[in-house]
Amino acid sequence: MRDVPRPSDRPAETPQAPGRTPHTAPPGPLRCPGAEDQPSEASAPPARRPARKADVALRVERCLPDGFLAEALRADARAGLSATPKVLPPKWFYDECGSELFEKITRLDEYYPTRAERSILRAAAGQIAAAARAETLVELGAGAADKTRLLLDAMAAEGTLASFVPVDVSEAALIEAARRVDGEYPGLAVTAVVSDFEEHLGLPSASGARLVAFLGGTIGNLLPGQRAAFLASLRSRLRPGDSFLLGTDLVKDPAVLVAAYDDAAGVTAAFNKNILSVLNAALGADFDPDAFEHVALWDARQEWIEMRLRSLQDQIVTVPAIDLVVPFAEGEEMRTEVSAKFRSAGVAAELAAAGFSMTEWWTDDRGRFGLSLSVPA
Q1: Which residues contact 259 (CB under 8 A, 6 or more apart)?
Q2: Which residues does 79 contact at the CB level (< 8 Å), separation at least 6?
Q3: Local confidence band at 99 (pLDDT 50, 70, 90 cut-offs)
């Protein structure tokens, strides 16, 4: 699971798709077709908003073609439900209900990653800002941008902060978060980029050095080849002087890991089953979530958690929107998520293979989560 929920920004029939798997695109700054400047809504200033002479316009760049998310869901469902074994990408968990369930997960005693990463940022944000000396903070998968404020505050204290670029697939949530940040940091230039890591990874041009942050352990949802492609694609877009801040969940006691993905209250089970409700709403499928059970297991060889849905009976599911009939045998399992866990040496090696040099490494006081700072080699 990633660490940042994405509230829904679209009708029920078109789920949002947090991007996971980047593809190669031309290196360098990207100005997305159809991008436009969009001023902030005029409204009474929120309580926390500092007074200032004039608002900085909120700039919006859109990288997704019309109908992209709906077509991506159809393609993923067709491929995954026809595969052996069956598989669905975790990016489809996050409709409105799924995002609400994930917010509950982050507050569970068993789910440590959110708290662990935030504790690192509280302790190390000043060091990160001093090392990066960046004028622009770019956050991939920004979501609500909650933890981002720790970095923004540190960069402001360092005296370098000039602009913030949140990047996410959920346009409504992205713009809402961008406007909140705009309201809390007078004079900060904010550019919201609507982008999907799988097809349209884009970094807008910016003056000065950039700090690109990819937090929450989201990179663990990518398979090794996908991680390599993502890191290489990102590296091709960075310039000398830029930095990359990466959050990674670490290998630990399997009992702790499994509990984080199979909590006693059953919130993660409901979250896992919600992907079936997404397919029902978007594709007219007739999945019965109660006919499946949640499974979470630790794969010691791959060093990742797998979440699966296990069919409780022989059943036939129809998916009219993609003209598919899907048989499930009793006990058959469908994988819905991989969440890789890392070791510091492995993180450094993967970064090096993509052309990065890891310069700093921080963990929380219990060694559960790691943050790495890297620069283009």
Answers
A1: 110
A2: none
A3: confident
Say if residues 105 and 271 touch (Cβ distance below 8 Å): yes
From the CB of residue 41, how many other CB atoms can be counted at a distance below 10 Å? 9
Angle at 250 between CA 246 and CA 256, to 5 degrees: 140
pTM of the model: 0.84
What's the order of all strands across the beta sheet hosting 304-311? 292-299, 304-311, 333-340
pLDDT digits (tens, 9 = 90+) for 162-221: 999 988 887 877 888 888 888 888 889 998 888 887 667 777 777 799 999 999 999 999
pLDDT digit string, tens, across residues 21-62:
333 232 333 334 333 333 333 333 333 333 333 444 588 888
Tokens 């958690």 locate to: 305
Please determine, looking at this structure, whether the domain spanning 19-26+58-262+342-377 carries the CATH number 3.40.47.10: no
Q: Please give the structure tokens belonging to residue 272.
A: 């896992």
Look-up of token digits 């760049």: 61
Q: Are strands 356-363 and 369-376 parallel, antiparallel or unpaired?
A: antiparallel
Element (H, E) at 325: strand 324-328
| Under 8 Å between Cβ of 7 and 215 | no
Buried b (16+ CB within 10 A) or exposed e, 82-109: eeeebbbbbbbbbbbbbbbbbebbbebe
Contact 167, 6 (CB under 8 A): no
Distance in angstroms (rounded) separating the CA atoms of residues 143 and 294? 26
Average pLDDT over residues 264-279: 97
Question: Any idea where the domains of the chain sit in the sequence?
Answer: 19-26+58-262+342-377
